[in-house]
Amino acid sequence: MIILNTIHALFGERILPILIVVVAVWLTVVWKPGADVPRAARIFPVLVDIQVMLGLIYWIYSIVISESVRGIYLGFPFLLHPILGFISAGVAHMAIRPRGPLAALGRWAPLAALVVLFLTVAGGILLARSV
Questions:
Q1: 3-15 mean pLDDT
Q2: Do the Cβ atoms of 27 and 41 come closer than 8 Å?
């Protein structure tokens, strides 16, 4: 499980924030409202889903196995970390949905969604480091 936590931490703290910025710039340039979603853009929410799933597996495993971290992981500041993970996954899917709630923003819809995604990921990182 240490490997799972390492992968979750490495991807969440170092790779995902950079990837969000790159995808935000790329989607802002290539996004055409009403057109089909680029195939490469469909992969991005799946990566966020994998990150959330890795974190959820580690979180549940740690709560079940270890009594020493149960209070920490179910305590207030850290309990927001998995909640922000689920919000991040939802926002990542909204970023590429052509008829989603941000569709009125036109070509700026993916950028707006990815800014919110970046903020939720940054918040999750800060919460994880506070423990």
A1: 91
A2: yes
